[in-house]
């Protein structure tokens, strides 16, 4: 249906301007019931969107600042691949103190989602020790030597407790104000080992040397696999030590 689906949020719902940052989706500033919001149109399945929207509602109810799904006129949280969410003001983290606040927010996310079910169709990093595919990952498309390096990095995570990880904590996906830290763009969120979220600038999460090395290697391997084979993925694979 495309953007015609926006009409399901009311007769006056309208697109305003395209927003940057979306890769897998078409993301726009929209107006719904006279207020600014964000509309995201993509090709994810209903099961995937149900997982994401229920997660965001759970986190919002627990006090985390996240984009909250705005229901359609008949109460659905998404329609025909379109999700409409609250717009969050703020800027990216800039100082070590900012990144320390981000780390605290991520740890709260991890605490609130222990035991959360896996996103439909996704795999965790340790699942990929045995599986070949999962959503955007296809290890069969990577060179065998690269797969071996990635799996060696992920093997160091075996036995860790899992939870929801945001999966893409670059500065563009963080909206900070003096009073709170908001995480946006949950496209890469899935269930995995929490340390994958905690490889932050200047080790803002305060991981010890061993924990930081394990997390950094596993994170580089994940990003290489999920983006393969663009230039960024090749660069990230180059950061994963040979077996």
Automatic annotation (TrEMBL):
Spell out the Pfam families in the cross-references.
Answer: APH
As given in the record, the signal peptide range reads none
The source's domain of life comes to Bacteria
Which residues are in the Aminoglycoside phosphotransferase domain? 16-199
- What's the protein called, per UniProt? Aminoglycoside phosphotransferase domain-containing protein
The organism named in the record is Micromonospora andamanensis
**Which lineage do the record's taxonomy fields give for this organism?**
Bacteria, Bacillati, Actinomycetota, Actinomycetes, Micromonosporales
């Amino acid at each position: 249906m495309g953007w015609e689906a926006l009409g399901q949020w009311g007769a006056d719902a309208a697109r305003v301007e395209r927003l940057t940052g979306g890769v897998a989706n078409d993301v726009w500033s929209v107006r719904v019931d006279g207020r600014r919001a964000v509309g995201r149109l993509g090709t994810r399945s209903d099961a995937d969107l149900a997982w994401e929207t229920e997660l965001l509602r759970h986190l919002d109810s627990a006090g985390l600042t996240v984009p909250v799904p705005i229901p359609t006129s008949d109460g659905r949280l998404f329609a025909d691949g379109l999700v409409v969410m609250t717009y969050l003001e703020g800027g990216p983290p800039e100082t070590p103190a900012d990144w320390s606040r981000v780390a605290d927010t991520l740890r709260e996310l991890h605490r609130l989602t222990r035991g959360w079910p896996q996103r439909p169709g996704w795999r965790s990093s340790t699942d990929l020790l045995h599986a070949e595919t999962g959503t955007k990952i296809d290890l069969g498309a990577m060179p065998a030597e690269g797969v071996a390096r990635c799996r060696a990095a992920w093997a160091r995570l075996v036995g860790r407790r899992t939870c929801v990880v945001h999966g893409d904590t670059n500065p563009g996906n963080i909206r900070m104000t003096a009073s709170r830290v908001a995480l946006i763009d949950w496209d890469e969120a899935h269930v995995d080992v929490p340390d994958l979220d905690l490889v932050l600038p200047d080790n803002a999460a305060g991981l010890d040397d061993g924990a930081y090395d394990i997390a950094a290697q596993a994170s580089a391997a994940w990003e290489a696999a999920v983006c393969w084979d663009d230039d960024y993925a090749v660069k990230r694979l180059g950061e994963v030590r040979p077996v």
